[in-house]
Q: What sequence folds into this?
């Protein structure tokens, strides 16, 4: 009984509000939690400096954001998806199926991925091979592929202390995971020569071999963190042997609790990432629905403001927070000004 | 327990005799039973003690971590609003003044800090930019908003109270120490020296921070400027929606079910399902809200209206159950008497039963609202968790439709952020939320005490 009345009154309210809700006047953004701090800094400055309302920025992960982005065109869909990885072919197709055909890709800069452990624990100097040997599901021992037997770091590399291996890596819904797999585990797989063994085991199929390379062990040594970096930090605080994967900006805000490990001998910093010395970095993006430009007020202005020199440049607030600014920012600015869509000109 | 079966079987004459001997002398069995009772009391006291201990730990943790958020570090500066930087043409045209972004205000603040430092004769190796970095990034925004509001002040020197950046604030709150900033690129030891000197000169002071309670959320770059105010309004608007919808619907449904509905299988099914709904996890209502209100009805996402509708669905069973319970508690003699003097069924309900049940209904409603106020999960899916720094809405319809957050969602959002200063604010937010919940629950208790009648 109550439901009939409930639906009736909801409908009544909806009817009243539908007219008022007809024009959404603020930009809606969702996506990567890595991009969220940057997007919120820009959204705040945008609200202060322009007569448009402050955009709403939600997080939830790159994949979740792009999924919502690709739900269709219209005011009840988001205008911008933040992503810590490039959009996939599959997602472009899903977008096209839902009518989202013109997408503007905007690269905002680069972000470093760092490995950090408790400040009072042992310091580490990693190479990608170390991580492969520590976390891969299978490694090569005496020419044979076996389930990963390593339990402590000194088994991986004789220079390391005898500390149990305990890694907190981002879960698969995070864009960071993909970069970790590609730039660290896969590189380590190649360096140790395990890739050839996997290729041979898979009958020459290189794709399958790469997949086997990046399969992480599931015996509890590597723990997937589906939440944010704060969760990884909390895990390390409760388990001092743990080593976590963080974004550079997060580490730089928590230097009193974390110490950072070097990768291939390079200390991660905005400088070493912008020169390309530090190997584990990835571009950050946001994607704009072109169909919404001109419909949602301030959308294009927000996109242009985001990548303007004073915001995303080397001296801007984003760089100060930890973003490695893009040397080719001018090109991106032009592309956004011209509303160049993906596949259209790039 | 076994004494009944034992005593005839044992046939132990001396023991039997002893049993009847004296009331003052305790038998073994009585001693055992008394001991069992004493033990049970002890268990109860231990259980209560554990509960109280948990409460004390919880409350002290919340207050020790959260009270800091109500204090904030401010720096008082005299700023010269240079005409050639802020209004080049000098015609005080608001549109032209607005063209100067917050980035254009940074040099003015830099000069003001440098002037203050040299005026006080403080020796520091820092460059003006590094000196100005002890101020919040919010300072430029404060300044710009002031200039746009008072364009006639351009050219004058005005005194401002700016927020200090979160590390400076943490230093004064002993969250940040000189040892902990070794690798921190947001603050240096020289800057802390400058802060010490400015504290000695009374330029920097830590005072009560009203904008934490009334302000809006701020981005990751300026945790010191973040406040609960706007999300409080968001919660308020949602509670309005819940109250306006859930109370009449819930009361109407319960009165019908309790007083008018025939007892048959249909009403039985409805009753069972209402009880079931009360136990449905709240996230389910969030998914329902996303599917029905946003995707199907095209209501705006992140709007308190949608949040309120979702929470209404969640609160309705609670209200119906408590309303029915308080209707049941009204003695049938009241109804019979009303019907006996010729009142219709409806008159007996609305003139006699409902007023007597009202305190119970109100209590149930307030408890339901308090439960809805603390709910985060259903809001996750309808876009009310995120960076939503909208300003306070002007009208009720704007408040219902413009994007907003809610208090628990805001706390969750802060707890996730990288800067430790947000962590303190999350605990501070919990204090504010607790104050609301305790107020609502106290109100419920008072209403019940004041108006409830017992038979």
A:
């Amino acid at each position: 009984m109550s439901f009939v009345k409930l639906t009736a009154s909801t409908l009544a309210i909806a009817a009243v509000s539908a007219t008022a809700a007809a024009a959404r006047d603020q930009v809606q953004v969702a996506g990567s939690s890595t991009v969220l701090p940057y997007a919120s800094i820009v959204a705040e400055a945008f609200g202060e400096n322009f007569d448009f309302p402050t955009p709403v920025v939600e997080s939830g992960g790159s994949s979740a954001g792009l999924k919502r982005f690709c739900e269709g065109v219209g005011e009840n869909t988001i205008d911008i998806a933040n992503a810590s990885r490039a959009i996939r072919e599959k997602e472009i197709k899903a977008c096209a199926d839902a009518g989202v055909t013109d997408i503007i890709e905007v690269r905002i800069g680069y972000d470093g991925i760092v490995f950090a452990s408790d400040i009072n624990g042992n310091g580490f100097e990693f190479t990608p091979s170390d991580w492969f040997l520590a976390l891969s599901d299978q490694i090569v021992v005496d020419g044979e592929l076996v389930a990963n037997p390593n339990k402590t770091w000194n088994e991986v590399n004789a220079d390391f202390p005898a500390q149990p291996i305990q890694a907190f890596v981002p879960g698969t819904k995070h864009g960071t995971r993909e970069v970790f797999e590609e730039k660290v585990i896969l590189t380590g797989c190649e360096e140790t020569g395990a890739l050839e063994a996997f290729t041979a085991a898979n009958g020459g199929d290189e794709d399958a071999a790469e997949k086997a390379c990046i399969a992480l062990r599931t015996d509890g040594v590597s723990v997937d963190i589906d939440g944010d970096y704060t969760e990884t930090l909390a895990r390390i605080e409760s388990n001092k042997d743990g080593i976590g994967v963080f974004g550079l900006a997060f580490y730089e805000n928590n230097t009193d609790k974390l110490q950072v490990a070097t990768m291939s001998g390079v200390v991660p910093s905005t400088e070493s990432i912008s020169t390309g010395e530090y190997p584990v970095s990835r571009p950050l993006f946001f994607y704009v629905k072109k169909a919404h430009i001109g419909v949602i007020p301030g959308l294009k202005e927000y996109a242009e403001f985001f990548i303007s020199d004073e915001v995303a440049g080397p001296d801007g607030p984003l760089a100060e927070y930890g973003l490695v600014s893009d040397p080719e920012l001018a090109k991106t600015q032009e592309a956004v000004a011209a509303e160049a869509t993906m596949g259209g000109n790039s | 327990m076994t004494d009944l079966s034992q005593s005839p079987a044992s046939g132990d004459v001396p023991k039997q005799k002893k049993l009847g001997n004296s009331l003052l002398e305790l038998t073994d069995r009585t001693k055992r039973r008394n001991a069992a009772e004493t033990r049970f009391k002890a268990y109860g006291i231990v259980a209560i003690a554990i509960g109280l201990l948990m409460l004390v730990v919880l409350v002290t943790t919340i207050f020790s971590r959260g009270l800091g958020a109500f204090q904030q570090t401010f720096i008082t500066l005299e700023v010269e609003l240079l005409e050639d930087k802020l209004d080049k043409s000098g015609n005080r045209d608001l549109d032209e003044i607005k063209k100067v972004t917050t980035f254009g205000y940074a040099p003015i603040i830099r000069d003001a800090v440098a002037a203050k430092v040299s005026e006080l004769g403080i020796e520091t190796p820092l460059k003006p930019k590094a000196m100005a970095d002890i101020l919040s990034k919010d300072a430029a925004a404060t300044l710009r908003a002031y200039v746009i509001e008072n364009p006639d002040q351009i050219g004058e020197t005005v005194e401002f109270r700016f927020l200090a950046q979160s590390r400076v604030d943490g230093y004064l709150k002993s969250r940040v120490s000189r040892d902990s900033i070794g690798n921190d690129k947001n603050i240096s030891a020289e800057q802390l020296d400058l802060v010490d000197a400015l504290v000695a000169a009374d330029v920097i002071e830590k005072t009560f921070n009203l904008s934490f309670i009334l302000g809006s959320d701020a981005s990751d770059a300026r945790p010191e400027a973040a406040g609960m105010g706007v999300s409080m309004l968001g919660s308020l608007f949602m509670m309005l929606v819940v109250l306006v919808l859930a109370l009449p619907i819930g009361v109407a449904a319960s009165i019908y079910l309790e007083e008018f509905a025939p007892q048959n299988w249909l009403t039985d099914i409805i009753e069972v399902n209402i009880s079931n709904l009360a136990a449905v996890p709240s996230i389910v209502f969030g998914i329902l809200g996303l599917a029905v209100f946003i995707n199907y009805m095209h209501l705006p996402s992140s709007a308190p209206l949608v949040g309120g509708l979702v929470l209404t669905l969640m609160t309705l069973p609670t209200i119906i159950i408590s309303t029915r319970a308080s209707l049941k508690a009204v003695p049938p003699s009241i109804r019979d008497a009303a019907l006996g003097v010729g009142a219709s069924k409806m008159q007996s309900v609305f003139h006699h039963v409902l007023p007597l049940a009202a305190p119970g209904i109100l209590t149930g409603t307030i408890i339901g609202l308090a439960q809805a106020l603390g709910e985060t999960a259903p809001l996750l899916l309808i876009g009310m968790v995120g960076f939503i720094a909208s300003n306070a809405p002007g009208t009720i319809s704007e408040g219902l439709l413009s994007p907003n957050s809610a208090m628990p969602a805001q706390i969750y959002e802060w707890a996730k952020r990288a800067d430790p200063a947000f962590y303190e604010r999350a605990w501070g937010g919990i204090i504010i939320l607790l104050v609301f919940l305790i107020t609502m629950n106290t109100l419920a208790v008072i209403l019940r005490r004041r108006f409830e009648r017992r038979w």
Notes: The radius of gyration of chain A is 23 Å. Chain A touches chain B through 55 residues (CB under 8 Å). Chain A has 16 helices and 14 strands.
